[in-house]
Design a protein that fits this description.
By secondary structure, the protein is α/β, with parallel strands linked by helices. The longest helix is centred in the middle third of the chain and has 23 residues. It is globular, with a radius of gyration of 20 Å.
């Protein structure tokens, strides 16, 4: 856990443009930074929702030529990255615009890595040190309040051959500018609002309780918990509530800053394993396992979980009561926004051992406040499958 006497560094190279209607600043940012031929990385859901035209109309009015790659899949694949980079080269793109949720933004980051390194295989750049060249001008425009990917230094890409989620992480992958307009999140369906919202809450909670947390990430993580826990139900129940949507987007952004300077932990390790094997929605997997991993880890970070309970506005007498209250509130929140149970995802119990094994070797396991072995992951998987908390 963080200590005021422990050395740390904090780097946030991305300029943030925030507020309702701020999307209109895109052409000015491109002009100022010399972006003349962008490739827009997005997905077909964004196109279908009419959000792409909000961007292309601005570019058309400014006389900026562009090309669109809309083939990004949920849990973006190495093949998506390859195809996007090939399209960028053929067009002669000199900059990237990522429009969408975490999948599109992560895909764009890795497309940028291939462009910067004149390469065609993203697997060569897995890890924290392999990407060594600055990306072309990169602008992120989030349309969901979940991943915080618009402000982080990493992208998670599925290796389609091994069904493994790899991480490409480097400060070079950070966006130059993140245009964060809450109005773009108003059309997000309730189910996506729920899964991405608890995904953002997971980022904040894991960042605050990770073994490598530090004071600045602690501060933004707790404020993210306050914003998300107080607004997710409203955003879920009334998608047109701009105040709630704005709080959710800011909470997601702060959570992204928090975990990119601390880490995620065992909730993400399970979610990434399930996403790799079953191509399941990342946010949903995080939401399902958050209370189970919190329960497992609780005794090792009682005071931190009590801080989280306080940030959620809960009342309690002791840190033990606070830690338990935090777990129970996460359970209530997941139920109120109608997230599915683990059994509903169609995961074969025969795969639990492989899922546990993949989770245990994930590099973020070491950041969990309580050590977790393969056997511990098996216990968490079985507890979630048996719906212990829902009984």
């Amino acid at each position: 856990m963080s200590s005021i006497t422990t050395p740390f560094f904090f780097e946030l190279p991305t300029k943030i443009e925030y507020g309702p209607g701020c999307l209109k600043t895109l052409p000015a940012h491109l002009a100022k930074l010399g972006g003349k031929k962008p490739i827009i990385i997005t997905d077909k859901g964004i196109v279908g929702a009419g959000l792409l035209t909000k961007v292309t109309d601005l570019l058309d009015a400014a006389g900026v030529p562009y090309i669109v790659y809309d083939g990004t899949e949920p849990n973006p694949k190495d093949t998506n990255v390859r195809d996007g980079a090939a399209m960028a080269r053929e067009f002669g793109a000199d900059c990237l615009i990522a429009l969408g949720g975490g999948s599109s933004i992560d895909c764009a980051k890795s497309v940028g890595v291939l462009m910067a390194h004149n390469a065609d295989d993203i697997k060569k750049y897995e890890g924290k040190t392999a990407a060594t060249e600055p990306l072309p001008l990169f602008i992120t425009i989030p349309t969901t309040s979940g991943t915080g990917s618009e402000l982080t230094f990493s992208s998670v890409i599925t290796d389609t051959k091994s069904k493994y989620k790899m991480t490409v992480k480097s400060p070079y992958t950070a966006a130059a500018i993140a245009i964060c307009d809450p109005e773009l999140t108003l059309s997000v369906p309730a189910s996506v609002t729920a899964s991405t919202g608890v995904d953002a809450l997971t980022h904040a909670i894991e960042a605050y309780t990770a073994t490598c947390s530090e004071p600045i990430s602690d501060a933004v993580a707790l404020h993210a918990v306050r914003l998300i826990s107080s607004s997710l139900r409203d955003a879920f129940n009334n998608g047109s509530d701009l105040e709630a949507r704005s709080k959710m987007l800011m909470g997601s952004m702060l959570a992204g800053i928090a975990f990119s300077h601390s880490d995620v932990a065992s909730v993400h390790c399970v979610a990434e394993s399930l996403g790799g094997l079953y191509d399941l929605p990342h946010g949903t997997c995080n939401a399902i396992f958050l209370p189970y991993v919190m329960e497992y880890s609780s005794a090792y970070c009682l005071e931190r979980y009590a801080d989280i309970a306080k940030a959620m506005g809960l009342k309690f007498e002791t840190v033990q009561e606070g830690a338990r209250a935090a777990v129970e509130e996460v359970k209530r929140l997941c139920k109120d926004v109608k997230l599915p149970a683990f059994k509903e995802l169609g995961v074969d119990k025969a795969d639990f051992e492989k899922i546990a094994e993949m989770s245990a070797v994930n590099i973020s396991t070491e950041s969990n406040p309580r050590p977790m072995s393969k056997e511990d992951y098996m216990n968490v998987l079985n507890a979630a499958y048996d719906e212990v908390f829902r009984q």
